[in-house]
Each structure stands twice: as structure tokens, then as C-alpha cells.
Design a protein that fits this description.
Elements lengths: L1 H11 L2 H26 L10 H31 L8 H32 L7 H4 L6 H11 L1 H17 L12 H24 L24 H4 L2 H7 L15 H7 L3 E2 L11 E7 L14 H4 L6 H7 L3 E7 L5 H10 L21 H6 L4 E6 L8 H7 L4 E3 L1 H6 L17 H13 L5 E6 L24 H19 L8 E7 L21 E4 L8 E8 L3 H9 L5 E2 L15 E5 L2 E6 L2 E5 L4 E6 L16 H21 L7
Parallel strand pairs: 2-6, 2-7, 3-9, 4-5, 4-6
Antiparallel strand pairs: 1-10, 7-8, 11-12, 12-13, 13-14
Helix pairs in contact: 2-3, 2-4, 3-4, 3-8, 3-10, 4-7, 18-19
Length: 655
Amino acid sequence: METKGKILSKFTDSSLFALICNLLLVYAIMFVAHLEFLFENYSYFSGNLTFSHICEMYVGSLRFDLSGILYVNILYIVLMLFPLHFKENKVYHSICKWIFLIFNAIALLANLIDSVYFKYTMRRTTATVFNEFGNEENMVSIFGNEILNHWYLLLLLIVLMFAMYKLYRKPKTEWKGLLWWKYDISYFLFLALAVYLSVVGVRGGFTRATRPITISNANQYVDHPVEAALVLNTPFSIIRTIGVSTFQNVDYFANEEDLENVFTPVHNPVVNNVFKHKNVVVLIVESFGREYIGAFNKDLENCTYKGYTPFVDSLIEHSATFRYSYSNGRKSIDGMPSVLSSIPMFVEPFVLTPASMNKVSGLAGELGKKGYTTAFFHGAQNGSMGFQAFARSTGFGGYYGRDEYNADSRFGGDADFDGTWAIWDEPFLQFFCTTMNEMKQPFMTAVFTASSHHPYNVPAEYESVFPQGDLPIHKCIGYTDNALRKFFDSARKQAWFDNTIFVLTADHTNETSHAEYQTDIGGFSVPIIIYEPGNDSIVGYYDKVAQHIDIMPTVLGMLGYDNSYLAFGCDLFSTNADETFAVNYLNGIYQYVKYGYVLQFDGTDTKAVYSQDDVFMKNNLVGKVECQQQMEKELKAIIQQYMSRMNADRLTVEN
């Protein structure tokens, strides 16, 4: 018994035992981070959560937490187990402790930050975040504002790191009394075993048949794609997507002809089309979700909801709008490819992938062939979000950003800068209108606004003008709506106004206060408004499904465009209602809206089918809907066309 007691004592004093205890401590910290993530975003999950389901997701999260912990602590594990005789030195283990604390503090910070960022993306952050904000010069101020707004998360970080510091276990001895060769052999075996178990933990299983788990594997523990964020952790999501090939070819259809018969993105002109040289103006309004617009939500809050957009409500009365309308992504950088080039976001934002180097066209490129003057406007620092590069690559001849605004003496220059992102919407939209007055017609322009964005400020003179609403963004929506009113007031006085097609949409949705806009598909609900002065024939509320990628083919159809082109969407005015559709991607799940249903597909199997009338997505009808097989077939064709064309650089049609 004494011998066993001595062995146990030596083991509990060893680096191996200390390592095990400290990694279990990280597990406990990770559990707290999961709880914080849930509490911070509870409204996005509350409609579907039960205690048993929360437990199921937490059990599933253990696999991903283990993988994330091993990724973050691999250096620490090696240092603790490597057979080095001078590990008896206290300095050595102090260095190990600080490596442990620093690396895990960064991991914890990433989780806490992501709990705030989630409401904008509805997914965990991946490695593309470094490219997404790589050109931004204002991240320090934004981060500082977030610390002030979410001071309790900073406090939680300090408390958890202090607990980790105090509970950290240092080894006392390294098996004193063992001969050096026994010590070396013991720790070499421990290290070899740790390497093996780490590989198993990172891969997510023991067998060769187990592929390394990735973020999409989280869907096996959830009922809705949005819940995958509760299973995953941010360090795992970032590390696991570094250097990963974004677009993987699929072979749902072995025969190219069969694929083309089900879906093709190539649009051919209608015979005898007569092209109309009308101007085209596209307004992509930051975070201008459908929820904020009263005209789209007359049944909300017992039919008392007014929204925050009186001008856009009035514009809708003279425009074409659609019963269902969706974005194809959840980020600003998804908006430009979808709206202006009819390219949806699958897996990762297109502009952050190698496929962005492909030859790509769009509204500007196609209309440039017809002699149009083209220009893109964005009031942020030139180069921000990669918009300038994408605009040029898709055929825009001019770019007007903060630099060009500041250089125009007719406007206020940097005095009109909002202090964080860009020039305030009101003056920049006036600059947009004035610049178009000086452009040769016909022209095709697009503007991307910025003011309805975090940190949700408005100019001082408007601080008390617009309704505060339930969310900080509501007053910004009111400000931007008023800026749009003033833009149209100015544009209406110009000679080019009556010869122009206007399209207004949002890049993505934002914070919401109604449960139907917090569902997997509700989180993509944006307005698509088409206004053509003097053309009452298009005015109305269409019982169709619309999406960002439909804007390009719809506008080209209105113009009678007579060349072939590539677009993944359809012409909303020439397509029957039952053939209109929407597609988007969320946490490893493709969503396909058609025939009155929303189908969720993980690339292999259909996981769920919901009626579009089931706005809270409560009743999963998988296997009970006749059109499910047809929807699967069509979605597979879209995915295969997308992946193969991305990888083969076939995103244009040569005329």
C-alpha cells in the first residue's frame, strides 16, 4: 500500500497530472463561454429550445471543444511532456504557465467577441474574418466602443482569467528518484500517447473512416442551422477553416446535359428584343432589413406595427415588391456579388475566396458593352471592404469613395464623416445625385450606404428626431429613410430621373425584435423594391419569391438586353410565380425556397422541410411533402453548377 501511495503521490505531482488538470480547467472555461453565448443571443434560439435539446447540443459541443482546446494548447502540451531534465526549474514551468494563460485568454476573448458578432452573421466566425476586415483602419475605435457597450463581457473575461490563473496547477516534481533514462522513456511514451490522442481529438474520432470534423458536422446535433453556433466554438471555427479549399466539386449529375436541363445560369436573350437605353440606379442600403419597413409588416403586433421607414413605405406604393424577398448572404461583402453580379454566397463570401480572381461580369460589365457610363459609390475609405476592387473587376468604370467626396468642394468633406465608418448617408446620397448629373447617359450606378450600422449613431442635429424604437438601430433606420427621401427629392428634379430604373434593397438584415425574423430563413429577409417612374404596369405586390441574385437578370430583362450572360437568379417579371426561388447558405446548410416550402440540405441529405406559412419554423415536414424530391434535384443542380464554374473559372458568357 505504501508503494502505491508513493506512486500516486508522484503522479499527482507530475507534469502529466498537471497537464490533465489544466486542460480540464479550460474545458470548464469553455462551458461558461457556451452559456454566455446562449444568454447573449437567447432570443435567436428561445423558440426551439428545451432543456433536453440544450443538453444534446452541449454533449455535441464536447467534440468541437476538445478539438479547439487541442489546437490552442498544442505548444503547451508539448512543453509539458517533452522529456527535458531541466523541467525541474521553476522558471521553465512559469513560462509554461504564461503560455497557457495567454493562448487560452485569446481563445476565450474570441468566443466572447463572437457572441456579440453573431447577431449580424448568425454563424461562428471563420478564418475569412482576417481578409474581411484587413483593409479597415477603424477597427481599434470599433473594438473600443464594443468594450464600453459590453463591459460585462470584459468583466467576465477578467474573472475567468483570474480563476484560470489561480486554479492553474504547477507540477511539484518530475518523478524524483527515477533514473534519467527511466524518466526520458516515461515522458517520451507520454508524449507519444498525447500526440496520438491529440490527433484523434482534432479529427473527432479514432477510426480511419473518421474524416477530420469541420464546422458542418455541428449540424448533426441541432434542429435548426442557426443553432450550430451553440455547438461550435470560435477558435475551432477559425483554425479549422484556415487554408481550406472553399469550393468542392460535387457530382450529383454525371451527365452535363442532364445538369443543364435541370438548371443553367446561362441566360439567352429573347428573340427580337429591343434594347431600351434607360439609366439604372441600384441602392444597396446597409442593414435595411425587411422587418423595419411597415409596409411589409402590416400584420405585426396585432396589425399596429408602423415600422421606421415612412418614405420607403410611400415609395412601395409606386413600385414592384414581392411577397417573399431574401438576401443571399449575411454580410455586407456578400451583398455586392449577389446584387450586382448574381452570385450567391455559398460556404464563404465570394470576394474572400480564390474564385474572386475569376473573370466575373455583372450589371456594370454587361451594360458597359452597350456604351453605358458606370460608377460605384461608397462613402467609406477607398478600398474598404474590398468594394473598390470588386467594382472594378465586374466592369464599373468609376469609383467614388470618401476620397472623392472630400475632394469635391461643393460638399462638407471630412466634417461629414461619421467618425467610424463613412460619410453620413444624407450628404453622401446628395453627392451621389450630383455626380450622376454630370455623367453621360445612359449610366448604370450603384451606391452602398453606411449610416444604419453599428455603433448606431446619427448626426447630432437628428439625435432626437427619429423614433428610438426597441433597438439602437431603429433611429438609424429612420435617419437613412429620411436621407433616401431627400435623395429622391433631388433626383426627381433632374432630367435623367424619368428615364431611370431604381432598385432598392438591403445588403443583409441586422438586429431584430420579432421572432419570425430570427429564424433560419427569416434572418435573410430583405426588401427588393423596383421603381420605374412613369411605368405603372409593374407596380404591385407580386406573389413571388425574390432574392438578390434576381436583381441583375430582372433589370436586364426590363431593358430588353439582347446578349447572353451568366446569372444564378431569374428575371422576376418573365418567370412564373411557381418557378421563382431563393437559395442561401447558413452553417453548412443550404436553404432552398420554392413551391411554398423551405428545404434545408446539408450537401448529402435533406434535414428539414418547412411550409413558408410556418413563419416560426416549428413543424418539420421532411419526408411528408411531395415536392421534396424535386426541390432536392433542383438545389443539387444549382450547387453543382456553382462549384464547377467557380473552380473552372466559368462565370461569364462570351458573346
